[in-house]
Design brief:
This protein is an alpha/beta fold. The two termini are 31 Å apart. 48% of the residues lie in helices and 11% in strands. It is globular, with a radius of gyration of 18 Å.
């Protein structure tokens, strides 16, 4: 595994693999390994294991460590592995320790569990997490962990905090965060972390945020990579064609069920021929009609690529 700093290695399309389970609901590491391996071979720029799409909330610490270690082994240093870490401060630190033991390159700090904390508490939480591990930390802004520009400036001063992933979607706030950090002469990586980030890719690109996580890459890497190339090269004609014909219908389908940001992705992976099992409770499976609609959307998306693949 390379010892190069994580910030310099995060480039390209960011892959958030699903976590595979067998028919008995137990962890299926063989299927998970195959999923990670296929993603890296398809061209993923990084692997974010056991995060939101990977059902971090549903894993035991032992399962978590096993998955992170498997991802590290399958990537074999070709791309960095970032692992999710969350809950309260003590448990987040424990998961960070497990990720470090498993060989991860960094952490995605998920929002704290349940509580709605003030800015001072959030700052203390992420500062404590960064101080307790040798791994670089990316803070995930969403739900009950929405940060002010002033707090992000303070986080940018914390050793080990290298980035902010935005799953909140307030572009006004993100522009003010980027501006405030820049005005202080500080550096952070910024990521578009909305559930289907491609739909807002043009808007985030407008404020200088070009890194993003792609759930679509899990089940249709050819479509995800074609969109990524078009977005980064300024081929807005292709971007808009894929938004209109694939991404917007996908997002509208995702909105039809709670938890579809995870369960629909997992259904897509199964449609591609890899049995990664069902989601664990409290999430539930998509309706059969919605899985059929997903298959049709994927087929239309690939038809839009034509000879451009």
């Amino acid at each position: 595994m390379t010892s190069a700093p994580l910030a310099g290695r995060l480039d390209g399309l960011l892959f958030f693999p699903v976590t595979a389970y067998g028919t008995d609901g137990a962890l299926d590491l063989d299927a998970f390994r195959a999923h990670v391996r296929a993603g890296v071979e398809a061209g993923a720029g990084a692997v974010f294991a056991c995060c939101g799409t990977g059902e971090f909330h549903a894993l035991t610490p032992e399962e978590y460590r096993a998955c992170v270690a498997a991802a590290v082994e399958e990537t074999a240093g070709r791309v960095p592995v970032v692992a999710g870490a969350g809950y309260g401060t003590a448990l987040a630190i424990r998961y960070a320790e497990l990720a470090e033991e498993a060989g991860a390159d960094g952490l995605l700090a998920m929002p704290p569990y349940l509580v709605v904390a003030g800015q001072e508490g959030l700052l203390r939480h992420y500062t404590a997490l960064a101080g307790a591990t040798g791994l670089d930390v990316i803070v995930y802004q969403r739900d009950n962990a929405v940060l002010t520009p002033e707090t992000v400036v303070e986080l940018a001063r914390v050793d080990g905090v290298i980035g902010l992933k935005d799953g909140h979607g307030d572009l006004d706030l993100m522009q003010r965060i980027v501006s405030a950090v820049r005005a202080e002469g500080l550096d952070l990586l910024y990521f578009n972390g909305l559930p289907t980030a491609e739909l807002t890719g043009l808007a985030y690109r407008g404020i200088g945020v070009t890194l993003y996580s792609s759930a679509v890459f899990c089940f249709a890497p050819d479509i995800a990579l074609a969109f990524h190339r078009a977005l980064n090269s300024g081929d807005d004609e292709t971007v808009n064609r894929l938004i209109d014909g694939f991404y917007r219908p996908l997002v509208e389908l995702r909105a039809k069920g709670r938890g579809y940001a995870v369960s629909l992705v997992k259904a897509g992976v199964r449609l591609g021929g890899l049995d990664v099992g069902e989601v664990r409770p409290p999430l539930s499976e998509p309706a059969p009609a919605h899985v059929k609609e997903l298959a049709e959307i994927i087929e239309r998306g690939r038809a839009l690529l034509g000879d451009r693949r």
